[in-house]
Design goal:
By secondary structure, the chain is an all-alpha fold. Helices cover 73% and strands 0% of the residues.
Length: 197
């Protein structure tokens, strides 16, 4: 954490709400992106980010300064998202109902935007196949570069469980991706081989 952010944190722990506001501004995009990747819905992600900051503010006196603040904050957000995913686990969510939000590619190239949108939808669909805890581990590891130890602390599971979950998730995702690619290739082949009317 930068010196300025460290000062804000100390002031916020002492009860300065404006200092915590600065922390929210500094970390809002990271927290929102984690929530969005886990929940797949812009509005739910915004609500989850607000809830994560609210919970962090209420728990500031329990923050261990030996730990990374960003890891602690993102852990709070991940736990909240896991709870939300468990609550809606029995609901069917159609990918067509998910709003699209362009996060990182401001390119005006329409083909690039369309490809980026398709890639994001495919990744979101693949992530939705994972259990909430596995999804959190994958997002933390591959989008936020958390170490195994940080994921272990964030999700309250052993390091061996983290490794096992990530291995299982990678295998599931790879298998699903290859199945999808195979089906897409067969569909293309059938389309090109069908006789013209």
């Amino acid at each position: 954490m930068k010196n300025e952010e460290s000062n804000w944190l100390q002031q916020a722990i002492a009860g300065d709400a404006n200092a915590f506001g600065n922390i929210v501004e500094s970390y809002h995009q990271s927290v929102f992106n984690l929530c969005y990747r886990m929940l797949g819905d812009q509005y739910e992600a915004e609500d989850a980010a607000q809830e994560a900051f609210f919970r962090a503010y209420k728990s500031l006196n329990r923050y261990d300064s030996k730990r990374s603040f960003s890891t602690w904050l993102l852990s709070i957000a991940a736990h909240y998202c896991i709870d939300q995913l468990r609550k809606r686990r029995m609901k069917f969510i159609s990918l067509d109902d998910l709003p699209y939000r362009e996060i990182s590619d401001p390119s005006p190239n329409p083909e690039g935007l369309l490809r980026s949108r398709e890639d994001q939808q495919e990744v979101r669909a693949l992530l939705e196949m994972l259990s909430p805890t596995d999804r959190a581990a994958v997002v933390m590891r591959y989008w936020y570069d958390f170490s195994y130890d940080e994921i272990s602390n964030a999700l309250n599971i052993s390091i061996s469980a983290v490794k096992s979950r990530l291995h299982r998730a990678r295998r599931t995702l790879a298998h699903s991706w290859s199945d999808k690619s195979y089906q897409s290739l067969n569909h293309e082949r059938k389309y090109h081989e069908s006789p013209a009317l």
